[in-house]
Design a protein that fits this description.
By secondary structure, the protein is mainly beta. It contains 1 helix and 8 strands. The chain has one helix at 2-17, and strands spanning 19-30, 34-49, 52-67, 79-86, 89-96, 105-113, 124-130, 133-141. An 8-stranded antiparallel beta sheet has the order 5-4-7-8-1-2-3-6. A hairpin with a 2-residue loop joins β2 (34-49) and β3. The protein is elongated, with a radius of gyration of 22 Å. The termini are far apart.
């Protein structure tokens, strides 16, 4: 009976040690002229190897910035800079135009393995500069 109990405890511990968590967060926010969305998908895996607890993670994100006005309002745009900052780092993009932009939507994306993960309660800071104008705002988790 003691062997069966020990076996059941060992199986329970192994099952408990093999765990995968999926994170799928969408952060959004807006200012007077801009709105943005930061989509984050991450996978965390806990396990055991050679008697040691293991952990790995990988994730991907997409940042989308959209001008709220008409495309015609951007016809004189010469330079657009936008940046965002999370607990895991930041991103910055600068675009210069000789011709008017053909879209009101601008985006960037990326992925990593083993990097810092985005928290569910993260507040993402966004800054947008276009020609002589500038606005800052925050993105908050929609699914919290």
């Amino acid at each position: 009976m003691k062997k069966i109990t020990t076996f059941l405890i060992a199986i329970t511990l192994l099952i408990a040690c093999s765990e995968t968590t999926y994170n799928d967060y969408k952060f959004s926010g807006e200012s007077e002229h801009w709105e943005a969305e930061y989509s984050y998908k991450g996978t965390e895996k806990w396990g055991e190897k050679n008697g040691q607890r293991t952990y790995s993670n990988e994730d991907s994100y997409q940042f989308v910035l959209k001008y709220k006005g008409s495309i015609e309002e951007l016809s004189s745009l010469k330079k657009l800079e936008y940046s965002y900052e999370t607990n895991r780092g930041h991103g910055k993009t600068t675009e210069e135009y000789t011709d008017p932009p053909s879209t009101r939507t601008f985006s960037s994306s990326g992925s990593s393995k083993g990097g810092a993960k985005i928290r569910v309660d993260e507040v993402i800071k966004v800054n947008v500069k276009w020609d002589d104008f500038e606005e800052s705002f925050e993105l908050h988790n929609d699914s919290k």
